[in-house]
Amino acid sequence: MINVIGLGYIGLPTALMMASHGVEVIGTDYNKELVDTLRAGYTTFKEDGIDELFQAALNAGIKFSTEYQVTDTYIVSVPTPYDKFSKKVDACYVISAVKSVMAVCPKGATVVIESTISPGTIDKYVRPVIEANGFTIGEDIHLVHAPERIIPGNMVYELLHNNRTIGADNKEIGEKVKALYASFCQGEIVVTDIRTAEMTKVVENTFRAVNIAFANELAKICRHDNMDVYEIIRICNMHPRVNILQPGPGVGGHCISVDPWFLVGDYPSLAKVIDESMRTNDGMPDFVLNRIYEIMKEKGLKEIGRVGLYGLTYKENVDDMRESPTLQLLESQERHLATGLKVYDPLITKDVVANQFHDLDTFLDAVDMVVIMVAHSEIREHMVELKNKVVLDTRNICNLDGVFKL
Ligand code: SAJ
């Protein structure tokens, strides 16, 4: 039996996937409300295919609990926030979960850490907790790092198809955990050591962050001399060895906008390109705010309160707002004492910010200028309704006449 600890964006789909592929699974989360919701038969976030997967897992007998279980394999998938000031990972939830596992686990158990952690976290924080409980690692307890790789918006598909990395202290345990993931994963599963697995995860997200920063920097350069960055990227990408990503209003989510800081925090004098890239990405919401003022001036618009931001989530078609560029932009407008921007997101039904609307028509009635911050499918379907508005399209999805780009 597998006890999956932490039933959030990664733990839940992983638990469901294993259960629906014949593995006996109990999912544990300290949040009673979340466990009650799952027990009542409801998923806790939206994702393509998650409801069907949930149903298959329920049919296969998955259980949910607030208690840690006595079993031989644990998968720890709890959040790893980062400390904004020190730029270091905060492993408190991982440490606390491992402590709780130690309180119940039998000798011989395997503890798999799936949470994203900075390189060295297992040596520094996880091993001492296990040893402090009187266990010898490698004899009484086996330790593995199996970092997740799935992308919000396509999680179920990627869980099934992505290649994976398993880091283990010894090959035998690595192969055992590989077999567990192979119960559902159709991709290649590479077994390596723990430190390498920790590093690969952070490097993958850093690669993407640096490449997005390059696109964002190009957008700024092109804006300076009024060139079309999208056309330039399109043509450059026709070169067989060039593949530039897309500029945008900023980088959000709990991965690309966070993990690279672990490397900057741990190697401040070495991680120069990464540091500069992260600052470039973090500066994009301010760049958008400046664009809003420039365009308002050009179009003779006087009231910032008649400008509306479309999209609150960190990217299209997900309901996750963590580190979202729109939230960063709203913070930025407060710093510039220019509050009043209107906001609408079809996927955020709760009131989370001031001046938030819950209906597209009312939102459009309240504004003269729309800033497309997120390329949700909904806005693509209603593009024609924007034709009498001034539009700043930060995602390059709108081809109405006169639309402004980054
Ligand atoms: N973005 C751009 N331009 C682009 C691509 C993305 O501005 O060309 C922005 C998005 O709008 C968003 C942010 O970057 O605000 C991040 O979005 P994303 O789709 O690139 O990535 P995430 O954060 O949703 O998921 C990433 C993935 N990592 C990589 O692709 C290397 C995923 O595979 C990881 O599992 C996930 O981080 C994670 O949990 O670590």
UniProtKB/TrEMBL annotation:
The GO biological-process annotations, alphabetized, read as: polysaccharide biosynthetic process
The residue ranges of the UDP-glucose/GDP-mannose dehydrogenase C-terminal domain are: 308-400
**Highest taxon of the lineage:** Bacteria
Mind listing the GO molecular function terms for this protein? NAD binding; oxidoreductase activity, acting on the CH-CH group of donors, NAD or NADP as acceptor; oxidoreductase activity, acting on the CH-OH group of donors, NAD or NADP as acceptor
Keywords carried by this UniProt record: NAD, Oxidoreductase
Q: Which Pfam families match?
A: UDPG_MGDP_dh, UDPG_MGDP_dh_C, UDPG_MGDP_dh_N
Provide the family line. Answer: Belongs to the UDP-glucose/GDP-mannose dehydrogenase family.
Classification via NCBIfam families = NDP-sugDHase
Official protein name in the record = UDP-N-acetyl-D-mannosaminuronic acid dehydrogenase
Q: Which organism is it from?
A: Cuneatibacter caecimuris
Taxonomically, what lineage is the organism? Answer: Bacteria, Bacillati, Bacillota, Clostridia, Lachnospirales
